[in-house]
User: Fold this.
Amino acid sequence: IADIKGGESEGLDKLGQTLTVRGWVRTLRVQSSVTFIEVNDGSCISNMQCVIDSDAEGYDQVESGLITTGASVCVQGVVVPSQGKKQKIELKISKLVTVGKSDPSFPIQKKKVTREFLRSKAHLRPRTNTFGAVARVRNALAYATHKFFQENGFVWVASPIITASDCEGAGEQFCVTTLIPSTKEAIDSPVDAIPRTKNGLIDWSQDFFEKPAFLTVSGQLNGETYATALSDVYTFGPTFRAENSNTSRHLAEFWMIEPELAFADLNDDMACATAYLQYVVKHVLENCKEDMDFFNNWIEKGIIDRLSDVVEKSFVRMTYTDAVELLLKSKKKFEFPDIKAFYMRLNDDGKTVAAMDMLVPRVGELIGGSQREERLDYLETRLDELKLNKESFWWYLDLRRYGTVPHAGFGLGFERLVQFATGIDNIRDTIPFPRAPGSAEF
Ligand code: 4AD
Ligand code: MG
Assistant:
């Protein structure tokens, strides 16, 4: 349908052509002389309005009640001008085939359903305008992400999902273990199922990985290993955090984009983050016009202007000290953030680190990044201070031992970017199958 109706003429260039459309029935309107079937195939917001007369092949399916909301159909017909105001063209059906009928219990009917209700129908919600548009814009953002980094000479690196290191040191990792076999007996009585040594300690030698392993919270450390060999690299993959925050900005499973720049400092890092965001936002404004108009009309009034500003205006840079001063003056309640991660480079003042966050309206923290501590002695001291086990970071320390370089990078939460670019207020509506405390269905 996007192919037919997209472009300047909104389909008028196809007049007279015989075309086939496959999709799902959105609505059926039976009028005295004609019947209208609105078909959507997920390629765009627009439906294809199809008109069927009683003499068309397959009209009996309308009469017998087969054509209902949710049914999948294949329609063949001639493109004709439409009398309606909503579209320039419609399809005059010559042949109608029901591919799969839809049970009357189909839960997504025309009446407005809440996004909260749709979260319980994650398998069917992509058939709505909102979730169809979110899926397409998410896809465009992913495409633009690869395009931006590829055009700028970055190499995509696959970071592992299972790892023994805790990059952020916040203790938010999900443990992956085969120590508890997934049998019913073991699940009913996991404490008895865990193998123990003679001393009563957990016997990790019997685990698949022979040590505690976790779902990754960040691909950064792995990214650093490749940046110190291939120069600029980026990762783009799923990451996991077991933080029990039931908020509209946190997921237990989210995708992160993590570029790592070699021979670079914090300024280069900030420049890269800014250029990246402007590039992907511009891409979406230029390539997802219909979906963005939809968000502008129905989700967040003014979002297109807000995003255009992002592309055109420069970003305000503010130091940590200035931000604290501003907050103190505002008399708003706020907490001083906790200790920074072990890998961040110590500044010359010996107190602060070379780190940055990018904050955006409505979402808050979109990006967190830093220049990494490239000096072996400083890094070892820092690991000691935080009482982290130096031995387990032997490979990370090797990167400083053999040809270390100043390097910097950042992590961008992809779902927060989708929130920012669509105006969707809850992060659970930006990913097809959200994982959050107490929810891992589908
Ligand atoms: O600020 P964070 O914790 O930084 C890192 O993980 C660094 N290792 C990144 C790096 O320098 N390579 O996380 C980065 C971003 C945040 O700014 C936020 O956008 C997103 O990841 N994020 C989450 N998004 C959704 N749900 C969560 N629970 C998130 N936690 C972080
Ligand atoms: Mg952060």
User: Anything to note?
Assistant: The longest helix spans residues 129-151. The mean pLDDT is 95.
